[in-house]
Automatic annotation (TrEMBL), chain B:
This is Protein phosphatase CheZ. The record marks 174 as: Enhances dephosphorylation of CheY-P. Plays an important role in bacterial chemotaxis signal transduction pathway by accelerating the dephosphorylation of phosphorylated CheY (CheY-P). It comes from Idiomarina piscisalsi. Homodimer. Belongs to the CheZ family. It is found in: Cytoplasm.
Length: 123, 249
């Protein structure tokens, strides 16, 4: 399983990468905003996206919308891991087709739970 | 300008008439010019005074040392300070993760070694073991103990590193406190400016900001620092899950 982690803070990318590695996912690449992530997704065979919301350049919510618009990517599961915690935002993300929503600060257990749930629903 | 000293006097007028009657044209002109100049002097003095007042008022306004210092020094300084906070927290996070990443393989390694010894060890504990098995078990246990003895001081050192990396909190806390103080000072000065330029303007601006705030309900805001005082944000992961499941997730 090839995963793309999108966050503008390298430390957060590193944390998520470590947690994912602990859960057995070792094929992980990184991008620092939507503008970097989108071409990577279009050119690579990624199976899963973990993205932040608030980033310079293209924000996570717009990346999600772009993914859903793209015929080759629209099936891709997207998990949002973000400090954005307004009800309106969570509803907006759900409407845009997010597969899971985790608010920061979060725990390893929460990440595992949401991943399990997403994969369970897909298979 | 109504200063009597600068008005033409009856004596001067009579002198002027007599000078003209006597045909002293040049002296008459001179007298008239004197009278005229004295009035102009007063006008020039007044304009000069006004100019000086205006100049000083402008000077005072521009050179309020606090405003100048804030824009020229304090605000760029605050930006640097906040950059420093980002740098410090990033360094601390990386120091911590470096140490943790170095610890985790050691923990996994120890766990694996213990696991591989356990089956034979359990048989030994229940007196169910062959002599040659016992010999190889001794070597395995010896290896585990040696490895443990080597690793633990390393783990201790790495844990101390994690501990020390937390000193960023003290340093960044102090820096942030100073930036908060500056923001308060700037706010006070801006309020003073708004008082000068009229409250109507301020009210209109406030309304504009309020309406733009309402528009951006689903726009990114960054970490919520006052979640307990707001009703438009969720209080944690449980509330996110509840909200999503209410939407059919």
């Amino acid at each position: 399983m090839k995963i793309l982690v999108v966050d503008d803070f390298s430390t957060m990318r590193r944390i998520i990468k470590n947690l994912l590695r602990d859960l057995g996912f070792t094929n992980i690449q990184e991008a620092d905003d939507g503008n970097t992530a989108l071409p990577m997704l279009q050119n690579g065979d990624f199976d899963f996206v973990v993205t932040d919301w608030n980033m310079p350049g293209m924000q996570g919510i717009d990346l999600l919308k772009e993914i859903r618009k793209d015929d080759n990517l629209s099936h891709l599961p997207v998990l949002m891991v973000t400090a954005e915690a307004k009800r309106e935002q969570i509803i907006a993300a759900a409407q845009a087709g997010v597969n899971g929503y985790i608010v920061k600060p979060f725990t390893a257990v929460t990440l595992k739970e949401k991943l399990d749930k997403i994969f369970e629903r897909i298979s | 300008m109504s200063d009597k000293a600068h008005d033409i006097s009856l004596e001067q007028a009579q002198e002027l008439v007599s000078l003209l009657e006597e045909g002293k044209q040049q002296q008459a002109n001179q007298l008239l010019e004197d009278v005229y100049n004295r009035r102009n002097d007063k006008l020039f003095t007044s304009v000069g005074q006004l100019t000086r007042d205006l100049h000083e008022a402008l000077q005072d306004f521009q050179l309020d040392p606090r405003i100048v210092q804030m824009t020229e020094d304090d605000l760029p300084d605050a930006q640097n300070r906040l950059q420093y906070v980002i740098q410090k927290t990033e360094d601390a996070a990386n120091r911590t993760m470096d140490a943790v990443e170095a610890c985790l393989p050691m923990a996994d390694d120890m766990h694996q070694r213990v696991e591989s010894v356990m089956p034979v060890w359990n048989r030994l504990m229940s007196n169910d073991i062959e002599i040659n098995e016992f010999k190889s078990l001794c070597h395995q246990v010896d290896d585990v103990l040696k490895r443990c003895g080597e690793n633990m001081p390393q783990v201790h050192g790495l844990m101390t590193e994690v501990l020390m990396a937390q000193d960023y909190q003290d340093i960044t806390g102090q820096v942030i406190r100073r930036v908060i103080q500056l923001v308060e000072d700037v706010e006070k000065n801006l309020i003073e400016l708004l008082k000068i330029f009229g409250k109507e303007e301020a009210r209109r601006e406030a309304e504009k900001t309020e309406s733009s705030k309402q528009k951006s309900a689903s726009e990114a805001e960054g970490p919520i620092i006052d979640a307990d005082k707001r009703d438009d944000v969720v209080g944690g992961q449980d509330e996110v899950d509840d909200l999503l499941s209410s939407l059919g997730f």
